[in-house]
Amino acid sequence: MIEAYNIKEKGYHPFIVKEGWQLARLNFTEAQHINQIIRLDVHLKTDEIFIPITGKSVLIAASMVNNEPQFETELMKINHIYNIPKGVWHNIAMEEGSEVFIAEKSNTHVSDFEYFPLSNAKKEELGILVKAQLESQNG
Predict the structure, then answer these.
(1) Architecture of the domain whose range is 12-138
(2) Which residue spans within the chain are E strands per DSSP?
């Protein structure tokens, strides 16, 4: 009757997919490294809930102005709940060892996403913002 899950593999893993909702775990992977964010993604049919459970992660949101992302970043606190509303471009920058739970509509990872590639200038800008968030905790 009781189901238990412990996902340790790197990357994104939807592990409970039910009618209308799903829970996933995002474990650090090189693509999420603070220096490796190369794109943003958006969901048009669902909000996305993030709950960091260990490590250091920075939530990235962006609005588009003249087809250029204007970033907002926040260092996520462990066990706090963060929501990215549907239609908001976003990503997560993570340090090695970081883990985040994600709740969203079911099968979002299959069909409800678009990507926006970042220019080199925007990657550099984002890297500076993410590092500033991480340093604010250390300083």
Answers:
(1) Sandwich (2.60)
(2) 11-18, 21-27, 39-42, 48-54, 57-65, 68-75, 82-84, 89-94, 99-104, 114-117
**Tokens in use for 136?**
């604010």
Distance (Å, whole) CA 123 – CA 102: 24
Show pLDDT as tens, one digit a residue, over the chain (139 residues).
998 999 999 999 999 999 999 999 999 999 999 889 999 999 999 999 999 999 999 999 999 999 999 999 999 999 999 999 999 999 999 999 999 999 999 988 888 899 999 999 999 999 999 999 988 866 5
Helices (H), the chain: 108-111, 120-138
HSE-CB for 23 with a 13 A CA cutoff: 8
Cα–Cα distance, 24 to 135 (Å, whole number)? 28
Phi, psi of 95 (to 5 degrees): -90, 155
Residue keyed to tokens 């739970």: 101
